[in-house]
Amino acid sequence: MGLLSLGTPLPWKEVQKHADHVRQHGIQQFLHIWKNTKDKRGNSLLWGDEVEYMVVSYDDENKSALLSLRQAEILMALEENETRQRKIEDELGIGSGQRIPTFHPEYGRYMLEATPGYPYTASLEDLLNVELNMNRRREIAKQHMLPHEFPITLTSFPRLGAPGQFTDPYYPPTGNASRSFFLPDELINPHARFPTLTANIRERRGSKVAMNVPIFKDKNTPTPFIDPTIPYDRNLYPEDANARDGAAKPDHIYMDSMGFGMGCCCLQITFQATDIDEARRLYDQLAPLGPIFLALTAASPAWRGYLSDQDCRWNVIAGSVDDRTEEERGLKPLKHQRFAIPKSRYDSIDYYISQSPECRPEYNDIELVKDDKIKSTLTDAGVDEKLANHYAHLFIRDPIVVFSELIDQDDTTSSDHFENIQSTNWQTMRFKPPPPGTDIGWRVEFRSMEIQITDFENAAFAIFIVLLTRAILSFKLNFYIPISKVDRNMQVAHRRDAVIDEKFYFRKDIFAPVCHSHDAQSTGSETASEDASTSLYSSDANGSTDSVVSPPVKPVEDEYDLFTIDEIINGRKRKTTTNESSSDVEDEMDQFPGLVKLVQSYLDSMSVDVETRCTLNEYLDLISKRASGELYTAARWIREFIRGHPKYQFDSVVGSVVNYDLIKTVGQLTVGNEWDGAGEKLLGGMTGNRYRSS
Asked: Which of 220, 567, 612, 641 could cross-link to 650 by cystine, CB 3.0-4.6 Å?
């Protein structure tokens, strides 16, 4: 979430008056940053993860698990502890790898965010510390909670917004900020930014937000399903009519507040690149992987006390901050608004930005809505067309929260107006310029993954993505497919058990064209990457290998195919027939190597000791087994836990006792218990540096 500005937030009617001012000065702030840092080279790889927690409060006597709203008290205690520890660390000269982690507030008053105390490097030693660091963060957080509280990493709380009590303490579901049927405003972080963000999104949109997730039709679920818990007759606010007017759909779970989306937890990874060009390349190459890892980490099958027929959070969050008016959503002709905008400001990316020759114009195949005036400002200042298009697209949005004290800024030293727009474009990837006045480089953030139940799983996915970025750069990998196919993949990723039942568009030939240099001054780096790339393909019967040199340019539609996630992660084989001793012999060879094999080949190119390799291999095994279906996603495991509970009535309802037992079991898995018991289908056979609560 980052640092929170202090000041007086303006209501939406006042924000509107300053929207152009914020946009114009935001672009000037970006230009100042760009001019000062566009030629900066040689930044080392640094990276970090962001882990988000829900603080649950157990009532064992009544078999109830609630969301504790003591975020402020817990964070205050954590901040005091961090201040003391940092002083001790400075006095003792403790290295960066051992620095105490940092905790931050999040949207929900039951949420915490934790990051490493210092960025990780590309060293193997740092990779091996990731899980231990996550263990440490959770333990430190637990030490500053009450005995009946515990920090869990669950993407969505199954009974958030369900009838009855789901927070500790209880508040009735009402409040002027969200005006929700189901959530109290007391659930929102009380910092002025968050209630204002909630209210201003609702006011700008002209109605409450509306998310409808399909209900899971179990054998006793009514058809059609008309939710009996929606208070259609409430008339506290004008927006209460939204549900009666069709916002709540039959056969769906209806949600009407920002809290349902921004109250979810996720796992995000940020990388510092060596320079702006490498950052742009990583941004593009990671973008097609967003839907794949959304499906692989699927962990949110239950919403508002019901089982849903989808597994992921993304479209719920997209709806929860969708501030587009009816005109912008295409429901009415444009009259008062500037653009019709196809997506929420929380969605998948719309545009590739790298200037590498592999980025063919055909890949940017959806219409890009952009502010032509802003684009002209950028190109007139020397920004290339692709980067100008990127920011001219992001800056079609209005600022949502403006603090009166921060309206007038020095554009040469501040980036507040730029970040006001940039940071509220919550997309699957984020391209992040250096903050002014710092030594930080150009960065990219990978944002699609759902949080996992254990630190072992979260570390595995974080480490895998980091190693994959190293393979992308070392082997010059090319994952480009048209943006429209990435959008389609995002929709497919939400489907129940998509990881094993669905197919996703993915590139067939992932090796970019290799330029063979005859320059006597050339180094061996390209040859090394070529050799590594070549080794990823099996030899045929005559001993030849598939060439890493791409064929002549062909139609874009011939470059991709539909793959299962198992094939994307573990590889796709093709059968070949050879003739040995006058008998036909059928053999298999790699048609597509798979991402795990790419990472393994990258590790092969390094000097990795046996013990380190064994540890890293266990993380890779988890990814591989999730992709193959040998181990369940968290979403599938949660769904089966609920459906297998003796109190479940096969009517799609997640009752309070079922929820309590689920959350208690999640807590047990977190502390290293039940991996080969209740969690066998999720974690069976895995070891990990299991977190132990003291």
From this structure: 220
